[in-house]
Amino acid sequence: MFNFGSDVKPELADIDWDNLGFGFMPTDYMYIMKCSQGENFSKGELQRFGNIELSPSAGILNYGQGLFEGLKAYRKYDGNILLFRPEENAFRLRMGAERMCMPSPTVEQFVEAVKETVLANERWIPPPGKGSLYIRPLLMGSGAVLGLAPAPEYTFLIYVSPVGNYFKEGLAPIHLIVETEMHRATPGGTGGVKTIGNYAAVLKAQSAAKAKGFSDVLYLDSAQKRYLEEVSSCNVFVVKGNVISTPAIKGTILPGITRKSIIDVAISQGYQVEERLVTVEELLDADEVFCTGTAVVISPVGSITYLGKRVTYGSTGVGLVSQQLYSALTSLQMGLTEDKMDWIVVLK
Ligand code: COI
Question: Which of 135, 159, 234, 294 to mutate to test the pocket of ligand 1 (most atoms within 8 A of CB)?
Answer without folding.
Answer: 294
